[in-house]
Amino acid sequence: MENSAENHAEETAQAGTCLVTETFTGSINGGGHKVSGMKSAMFKQLSGKVENLEFRNILVDNETAGANVLAETTHNANVKNVHFNGITLRGAGYTGMIGKIQDRHSVRSVYRTQT
């Protein structure tokens, strides 16, 4: 099952679309796990909770829109203890680790380092 999920994530990232194309309203506790190698945002729209996760060694290059790692947009999202390390972004619109923030949100203990 894990290989199947990894292959799907890689195919989706290669296509330049978000890994989760619907609005995400759930909760993810990464438990300190690391996500690497993505080429697009994880979520199209994040309206849930993401915590205790690290994004490493990611290149998002989008000449026609924004380049984001966690989400293209957030709406009533809660992001806590998320670390970004070795991230390169090139975008033509809203570009950033979290993307365009709409309405209420909570962002705490979010760090970016470059190695």
Overview of the molecule:
The chain is mainly β and 115 residues long. The protein is 12% helix and 59% strand. The protein has 1 helix and 6 strands; from the N terminus they run H-E-E-E-E-E-E. Strands 1, 2, 3, 4, 5 and 6 form a 6-stranded parallel beta sheet that branches. The protein is globular and about 30 Å long.
How many whole angstroms does the radius of gyration measure? 13 Å
Q: Residue ranges: pLDDT <50 for 5 or more in a row?
A: 1-9
Helical proportion, percent range: 10-25%
Helical run tally: 1
Determine the strand fraction and express it as a percent band: over 45%
Give a nutshell description of this structure.
The protein is 12% helix and 59% strand. The chain has 115 residues and is mainly beta.
Summary keywords:
globular; 1 helix; 6 strands; mainly beta; 115 residues; disordered N terminus; 12% helix; six-stranded parallel β-sheet
